[in-house]
Design a protein that fits this description.
This protein has 215 residues and is α+β, with helices and mostly antiparallel strands. It has helices at residues 10-21, 43-46, 68-77, 89-117, 131-154, 165-179, 189-199, 202-213, and strands at 2-5, 29-32, 56-58, 64-66. Strand 3 (56-58) and strand 4 form a beta hairpin. Helix 1 (10-21) runs parallel beside helix 3. The structure holds glutathione sulfonic acid. It comes from Pseudomonas pergaminensis.
Length: 215
């Protein structure tokens, strides 16, 4: 399997953490696509992913799978023992719902803030910016943090009692929020406790060590 990504990117982090959770990191070859140079908007990359975003998984038969959720789903069921995306229909439904919610309410909102209300990837990549929209999305992300704080007051993990793809999605949002210096409000204690807990997982520690090493 090949993964096209940018090693320290927040969305790529979701797939790298999922790979580590599944013990699949040694089976993957990583190909670096330089976001800061805008390589993801060039025709060669757009041929791999119409949306021009990372990461993209390419299977050995050439099949291309983009979108973190779709890639994680694929990786999780490969061994016939899904541990991240649910075993029962209800678990699967809840995990997908909460994963999407972590994207809509936090991670994607932080991303829009980054691309529209900060210099983002620089003027040669950010050809259109709408600062007002970006700032609205920053406020949406802050509301999202408060929502997830409420969720995490009621249960240990985002979609229930077990760590899942939804936790990885929320963690991706937190990684992005930290990069753009958008801290989780101090009073969101449940969210902070959850973050401390998931940060102890070997998959997350390994990701952080990899990023620290490459900077
Ligand atoms: N919905 C996509 C997914 O889930 O995979 C979003 C992917 C995404 O936005 N990836 C970022 C990207 O390609 C990578 S990173 O910023 O997290 O490193 N951004 C570039 C751009 O121009 O939007």
């Amino acid at each position: 399997m090949t993964i096209f990504d940018w090693h320290s990117g927040p969305y790529p982090a979701r797939v790298r953490i999922a790979l580590a959770e599944k013990g699949l990191l040694p089976k993957v070859e990583f190909v670096s696509v330089n976001l800061w140079k805008g390589e993801h908007k060039q025709p060669a990359f757009l041929a791999l992913n119409y949306s021009g975003t990372l990461p993209v998984l390419q299977l050995d038969d050439g099949t291309l799978i983009a979108e973190c959720t779709a890639i994680t789903q694929y990786l999780d069921v490969l061994d016939g023992n899904p541990t991240l995306t649910g075993k029962t229909p209800a678990e699967q439904g809840l995990i997908h719902m909460m994963t999407k919610r972590a994207e809509i309410e936090l991670m994607d909102a932080v991303s829009v803030y980054f691309h529209h209300a900060t210099p983002g990837l620089g003027p040669h990549v950010e050809l259109y910016q709408n600062a007002e929209w970006g700032l609205r999305m920053r406020d949406k992300a802050l509301r999202g943090m408060r929502y997830f704080d409420e969720v995490l007051k009621r249960r240990s993990y985002v979609a229930g009692d077990e760590f899942s793809m939804a936790d990885i999605a929320l963690l991706g949002g937190m990684i992005f929020a930290a990069l753009v210096e958008l801290p989780v409000p101090e009073e969101c204690e449940a969210m902070h406790a959850w973050h401390a807990r998931v940060s102890k997982r070997p998959s997350v520690r390994a990701w952080r060590a990899m990023v620290a090493q490459t900077h």
